[in-house]
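Title: Comparing notes on inverse folding

I've been comparing how different people in this forum approach sequence design from structure. To keep things fair, I'm posting one structure and asking everyone to reply with a full sequence. Here's the target:
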C-alpha cells in the first residue's frame, strides 16, 4: 500500500521525467495542424506499450502523424502499404538463397522498426493481417528456424479507411481486440483548415522535424507509467465499466441487453487501466483520477463491444452505449 509520501515522491519523479511529452507535442505541432486528440492518443499508445487502430477518411494526416512521431523520437520508421496481393513474407521477411556462399540467409522485413505504419490494413488478406498481429502480440518474429526480437519501443499504427469497402477484408473482432486504442479521426475546424491551406500552398516548404526525444526516455517513461498509483476504488470503477458491457442488466441498463452481442474482454480492463495511467502521466500526475478513465474510455472500448442487428437497425453506436454506461456507473 502506497502512502501519501510515496505518491508525493512519485509525483516529483514524474514531473522531472515527463517534460519530454511537451517537447514531442510542440515538435509535432510544427507540422500537424490541430489533431491534438489524435496526437495525445498516439503518445498514450507509445507510453503504454500498446498499438493503435486509426479510422478516418483520406487526407486527415494519419500517415503524417506516425511518420512525424518517428522523426521526433529518433526511431526507425517503416511504412507498409497493405494491398490484396501482399504476402506475410512482405511484412516479416523471408529466407533467401545466397548462391556464392551456397546457403540461405535471412532478409528481414519492414516489421523490424520502432514505428510501423500499417496503411489501410483492411485491404490485405487475413494471412497477412495475422502475421502483423502476431508480431504485435509476441514482439518477436520467426523466420525459418530462428526467432528475432523486435526493437523497443515498438508501436504499430494501423489505419483503415471507412470508405470504399469493396475489395477489403474487415479485421475479425478477435483480432481488433489486440489494438489497445481505436481512434476515430475527424475533420479539422475552419480555422485549422485555413492554417493547413497556408502551410501547404503559400509556403510550400514544410518544416523538418528535429529529434527531440530518445528511445531511452520513452522506455523510462513507460516504467514510470506502470508505477502511477491507482486506488482500489478506481480499479473497481474500471471493472464496473467493463462488466456493464457484459451484464448491463446488473447495472440498471437492461435496455442494452438486446443491443450488445458481446462485451469487453479482460484486455479491455487491462488497457483501460494502463491508458488511464498514461493519461495521468501526461498530465504530470502520479495518481489516477476518475476523469482519466472517462477521458480514454471510448478509445479503449469502442472496438471491444459487439452490436446486435437490433442496435444497428436503431442506429445505436458503441459510442452511445459507452456514454450511457459512463453516465450510469457510480463515480468513486
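Reply #1:
Here's my take.
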Amino acid at each position: 500500500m502506497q502512502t501519501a509520501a510515496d505518491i508525493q515522491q512519485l509525483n516529483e519523479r514524474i514531473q522531472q521525467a515527463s517534460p519530454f511529452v511537451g517537447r514531442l507535442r510542440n515538435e509535432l505541432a510544427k507540422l500537424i495542424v490541430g489533431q491534438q486528440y489524435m496526437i495525445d492518443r498516439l503518445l498514450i499508445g507509445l507510453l503504454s506499450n500498446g498499438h493503435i487502430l486509426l479510422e478516418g477518411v483520406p487526407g486527415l494526416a494519419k500517415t503524417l502523424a506516425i511518420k512525424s512521431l518517428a522523426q521526433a523520437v529518433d526511431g526507425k520508421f517503416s511504412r507498409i502499404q497493405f494491398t490484396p496481393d501482399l504476402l506475410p513474407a512482405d511484412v516479416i521477411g523471408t529466407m533467401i538463397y545466397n548462391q556464392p556462399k551456397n546457403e540461405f540467409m535471412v532478409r528481414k522485413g519492414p516489421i523490424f522498426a520502432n514505428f510501423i505504419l500499417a496503411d489501410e490494413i483492411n485491404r490485405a488478406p487475413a494471412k497477412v493481417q495475422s502475421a502483423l498481429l502476431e508480431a504485435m502480440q509476441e514482439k518477436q518474429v520467426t523466420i525459418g528456424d530462428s526467432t528475432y526480437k523486435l526493437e523497443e519501443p515498438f508501436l504499430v499504427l494501423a489505419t483503415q479507411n471507412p470508405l470504399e469497402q469493396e475489395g477489403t477484408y474487415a479485421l475479425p473482432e478477435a483480432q481488433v481486440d489486440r489494438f489497445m486504442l481505436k481512434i476515430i479521426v475527424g475533420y479539422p475546424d475552419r480555422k485549422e483548415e485555413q492554417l493547413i491551406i497556408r502551410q501547404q500552398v503559400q509556403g510550400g516548404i514544410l518544416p523538418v522535424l528535429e529529434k527531440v526525444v530518445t528511445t531511452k526516455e520513452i522506455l523510462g517513461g513507460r516504467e514510470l507509467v506502470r508505477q502511477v498509483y491507482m486506488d482500489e476504488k478506481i480499479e473497481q470503477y474500471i471493472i464496473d465499466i467493463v462488466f456493464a458491457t457484459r451484464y448491463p442488466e446488473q447495472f440498471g441498463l437492461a435496455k442494452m441487453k438486446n443491443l450488445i452481442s458481446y462485451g469487453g474482454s479482460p484486455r479491455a480492463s487491462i488497457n483501460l487501466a494502463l491508458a488511464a495511467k498514461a493519461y495521468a502521466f501526461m498530465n504530470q500526475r502520479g495518481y489516477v483520477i476518475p476523469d482519466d478513465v472517462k477521458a480514454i474510455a471510448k478509445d479503449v472500448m469502442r472496438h471491444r463491444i459487439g452490436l446486435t442487428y437490433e442496435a444497428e437497425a436503431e442506429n445505436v453506436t458503441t459510442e452511445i452505449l459507452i456514454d450511457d454506461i459512463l453516465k450510469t456507473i457510480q463515480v468513486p
